[in-house]
UniProtKB/TrEMBL annotation:
Domain called Protein kinase: residue spans: 18-274
Gene that specifies this protein: pknB
Organism (species): Cryobacterium tepidiphilum
Domain of life of the source: Bacteria
Annotated protein name in UniProt: non-specific serine/threonine protein kinase
UniProt keyword annotations, A-Z: ATP-binding, Kinase, Membrane, Nucleotide-binding, Serine/threonine-protein kinase, Transferase, Transmembrane, Transmembrane helix
Length: 647
């Protein structure tokens, strides 16, 4: 995606929902933008695949895989993925927006972290990764760039673009994926990853947090990979002597060359981290500071102090701590004083009793008036059905009641007139109460279900059940729906699309657009067979241009192009592009070139190579000694060229 196209994204409305505000970051596969979800009114991060990758199915699969992997996780230390889709030719992911920085940014600013900071971040990463491992997901691309540090203190693990379902041996495919500085030995040597490969990457990240640098450096990626495969990661204390012994051991355990010697998953490593956390943070064995017992009273210390003791005890003043048994107590009152106090309490109780009787008498009289002729008296709700709103309101006012307007649908009561009341006629209610008048809105509209995606028979039954009518049916081919599945529904009166769930009136006539299934794929078929296949589904075909093609045999179809624009209907014509077979190319001369340069020159032209597999391990030291076939030979792409290295 060019800078101009990036500028063009600002302000764009994606999929009718996400308004792009600004660019956050740009990577090799996608660009991340800050956007507003107009439907839920919240800020989100939206990752948009670069335009030049839109036709690459492998990259599209990576996008879908990232959404599915993250959607399976619900954990406070994993970035949430809300949505995934495609707008025109643009694939996108919608994720939780976390204002802040990455762990990589933090390391750039501070170089290295304290043990306490490293433990806090490692614990959060392990918590999120443990949830992924429990869900059977291997991240496969752990690195500081994928650890997000939010402004509010949250730490989250993101970018599951390389994640895969875990098994005992999860292969990486045709190429190693991930960042070379964090790849485990088994990924480099055998191309196999599991949860323990994530643990190795975490060990390298912990080393980097504690020391500010990678354990291995080299001029070329192959040199770094060689060290990962053959060397043992040094302890962080070899670079930073103040590193706690517990963190040295965690790094050693996590980065063991043999996967069997590492924690089996992030949950095991998290448990171990919590067991040694106090020591890793540099506190005492129990995670507590030294204890100092201070006196509760005043005075100076009475015992000597041992400066090396973990606990320092200061002397206490015994008199300040122990109450005296001989302290004077107040004299008890005499009997005459007690009798006088009791007499006063009896007189006060008599006054309160008289006041209470008067209060109860007044309350009973007031209640009798309130419920007999006052506001609390009850009246009968009159029958008001079929009256207008004004007429019904006047009747209620006469009864000492108030009116409250409501709504109701009715096919028998004229629109604008009362259907019924709440409470109903004949009910006794307190005077001044509100009675709801349900006013007729006319006949109740029907609600249609979503018809797109149903079979033709199911759609017809749904239309009839909703008291609507089935109109005409049109057909077209579709790659997204099987044959006889409804693609869309339209109102017969004005051809407006019916999405389902809306309100419509009875006897609405609905036209259906029905799928004929996908257009048959005739790639690789002979011209005659392709014409016959398309004719079977009532499509026409004609021969077009011939082209060289390394994959399609001569005389077979490379592609079928729809002659007309838009949707494909029965009777449409397809133009067939026919293969002339692979175009021969001249074998270049690679003798004397550096080993990797010679290999690249041949593979870029599509040739397959055979050579001693041990040559790759020391590739920077080798050159091509000989080749077969010789330079200048014409050979089709895909042919095998044998190389001999100079050991």
């Amino acid at each position: 995606m060019t800078e101009s196209s990036t500028d063009a994204m600002i302000g764009r409305l994606i999929d009718g929902r996400y308004q792009v505000r600004s660019r956050i970051a740009r990577g090799g596969m996608a660009t991340v933008y800050l956007a507003t979800d107009l439907r839920l009114e919240r800020r989100v991060a939206i990752k948009v695949m670069h335009g030049h990758l839109a036709d690459d199915q492998a990259f599209k699969s990576r996008f879908v895989q990232e959404a599915r992997s993250a959607a399976r996780l619900a954990h406070p230390n994993v970035v949430n993925v809300f949505d995934q889709g495609q707008d025109a030719d643009m694939a996108y992911l919608v994720m939780e927006y976390l204002p802040g920085i990455t762990l990589r940014d933090l390391l750039k600013d501070y170089g290295k972290l304290t043990p306490e900071q490293a433990v806090d971040i490692l614990e959060a990463i392990l918590s999120g990764l443990a949830a992924a491992h429990r869900a059977g997901i291997v991240h496969r691309d752990l690195k500081p760039e994928n650890v997000l540090l939010a402004d509010d203190g949250r730490i989250k693990l993101g970018d599951f673009g390389l994640a895969r379902a875990a098994s005992n041996n999860t292969a990486t495919g045709q190429a190693l994926l991930g960042t070379i500085a964090y790849l485990s030995p088994e990924l480099i040597t055998r191309g196999i990853a599991d949860a323990r490969s994530d643990i190795y990457a975490l060990g390298i990240m912990l080393f980097e947090m504690l020391t500010g640098d990678h354990p291995y450096v080299g001029d070329a990626p192959m040199q770094i990979a060689y060290q990962h495969a053959n060397d043992t990661v040094p302890p962080p204390s070899s670079r930073v002597p103040s590193t706690p012994h517990e963190l040295d051991e965690l790094v050693r355990w996590a980065t063991a060359r043999d996967p069997e010697d590492r924690p089996r998953d992030a949950g095991v490593m998290l448990q171990r981290l919590r067991e040694v956390e106090s020591g890793a943070r540099g506190t005492g064995a129990n995670g507590l500071a030294h204890t100092m017992v201070l006196p509760s009273g005043l005075g100076q210390p009475t015992a000597s102090v041992d400066a090396d003791a973990a606990t320092q005890v200061f002397g206490l003043a015994p008199a300040a701590l122990v109450p005296s048994d001989t302290a004077e107590q107040p004299d008890l009152p005499e009997s005459s004083v007690l009798l006088a106090a009791r007499s006063r309490r009896r007189r006060r109780s008599g006054y309160w009793l008289i006041a209470l009787i008067l209060l109860v008498t007044a309350a009973i009289g007031g209640a009798g008036w309130y419920f007999g002729s006052g506001p609390g008296s009850e009246v009968l709700v009159p029958k008001l059905a079929s009256l207008t709103l004004d007429q019904a309101s006047a009747r209620l006012t006469e009864q000492g009641l108030t009116a409250k307007a409501g709504k109701a649908f009715s096919s028998t009561v004229e629109k604008g007139h009362v259907v019924d009341t709440e409470p109903g006629p004949g009910a006794h209610v307190p005077k001044g109460s509100a009675v709801t008048l349900n006013i007729s809105q006319g006949p109740q509209p029907i609600t249609l279900p979503k018809l797109a995606g149903l079979s033709v028979d199911a759609a017809k039954k749904a239309i009839v059940a909703s008291h609507a009518q089935v109109g005409s049916m049109q057909t077209q081919f579709s790659d997204d729906a099987d044959k006889n599945v409804v693609l869309a529904a339209y109102r017969a009166s004005d051809d407006s699309e019916i999405s389902g769930g809306g309100s419509y009136f009875i006897d609405l006539k609905i036209n259906l657009l029905v799928s004929l299934g996908a257009v048959p794929d005739v790639t690789g078929e002979t011209v005659d067979d392709a014409i016959s296949i398309l004719d079977d589904v009532k499509l026409k075909a004609q021969s077009g241009d011939e082209q060289y093609d390394a994959e399609i045999p001569a005389g077979s179809v490379i592609s079928a192009h729809h002659l007309e624009d838009g949707a494909v209907h029965e009777g449409d014509t397809f133009v067939l592009t026919v293969s002339k077979g692979p175009e021969p190319v001249e074998v270049p001369n690679v003798v004397g070139l550096p080993w990797n340069d010679g290999k690249k020159k041949l593979t870029d032209l599509g040739f397959t190579l055979t050579y001693n597999p041990g040559a790759d391990a020391v590739a920077p030291l080798l050159k091509v000694q000989s080749q077969d076939p010789a330079a200048g030979t014409l050979a089709p792409p895909g042919s095998t060229v044998s190389l001999t290295p100079s050991f």
